[in-house]
Amino acid sequence: MKRTALIPLVALLFTMACSSTNKVTMSVQEPAVVTLPPTMEKIGVIDRSLARSETGIRESLDLVFSLKSPELDKKGAHAAVTALTEELRKNDRFTAVTLAEAPRQSSPSSGVFPTPLAWDHIDEISREHGIDGLFSLEFYDTDSQISYSTQRVTLKGPLGVEIPGLEHIAEVRTTIKTGWRIYDYAGRNIIDEFVTAETVVTSGRGINPAEAAKAITGRTEAVQSVSGNVGTFYARNILPYWTRVSRDYYVRGNDSFKIARRRAQTGNWDGAAELWLRETDNRKAKIAGRAHYNMAIINEINGELDVAIDWAGIAYEDYGDKNALRYLRTLQNRKALSNRI
Length: 341
What we know:
This protein is α/β, with parallel strands linked by helices. The chain folds into 2 domains: 11-25 and 249-338, Alpha Horseshoe (Serine Threonine Protein Phosphatase 5, Tetratricopeptide repeat), CATH 1.25.40.10; 42-236. The protein contains 10 helices and 8 strands. The chain has helices at 60-67, 69-89, 119-129, 209-214, 219-236, 255-265, 269-279, 285-301, 305-317, 322-338; strands at residues 9-14, 21-30, 42-47, 96-99, 133-156, 162-184, 189-206, 241-250. Strands 4-3-5-6-7 form a 5-stranded mixed beta sheet, with helices on both faces. Strands 1-2-8 form a 3-stranded antiparallel beta sheet. Helix 2 (69-89) runs parallel beside helix 5 (219-236), helix 6 packs antiparallel against helix 7 (269-279) and helix 8 runs antiparallel to helix 9 (305-317). The N and C termini lie close together (5 Å). 31% of the residues are buried.
């Protein structure tokens, strides 16, 4: 998709007194991490993850949390899929995003991708919902580790007398693992597989280990919140994104470059460009080459990537500016990537 919007300039300049160049930083648009085929307009979302029960019995208080794992996994997976679906519905490229029911199949050990969904199952989902692409939460697993510590504190007795005692501290580290796939129904292939691992830490205090464990609150809500963020993040992997880049531009050569530098430092890039354009006809090859290079810079700032490539090419081919060759390759790489947007 061709991008027509101007690239916003970040007004962050670094003056380098002893260098022939200064730096300018700008925001440029990069293609999505995951590129979907244009045929994918109607999307289905399913949750293939299966809550599993813990089989090992650890310490008694740890078991309390283990017994809650199936319900915790169910709520966390639901939050992840719901957030993914909501984020996909905000994307204008899709005409429909449907939350569908997944076929129930046996799950492998936790944190491992199951066998890809059979295409006959996807055929059934497609016939029912009219989809041409499928986002799937393939697995969702939480693993909790509880640790205990104590510290000496002063407690008040029944008569208000202070007595020494121990405060018990319980900390639960919950690791959330998710695995995602994107199925291309029309192309009959898997476009992407993605795994995440996030950790949520909750803690509580009490006069004994049991009270400390009871004091741990908000664990389920924290897991759901992080899981929702994971779903949102994955949905955004199919969107182009903005990133910061830095570029060098010439500030030395003659008086025009000195004046142009001051104009650029005040944000008057058009005024700087007027001087650089004038110097492209300079009889000194070094000055003219630097001017051509700077004209490439100003055109990239303004979003004119093709024009910037032309200026940088002339700066190297006709005037031998070595910086221009490196910059030209950077621009050409950006051009190739922009064709994917």
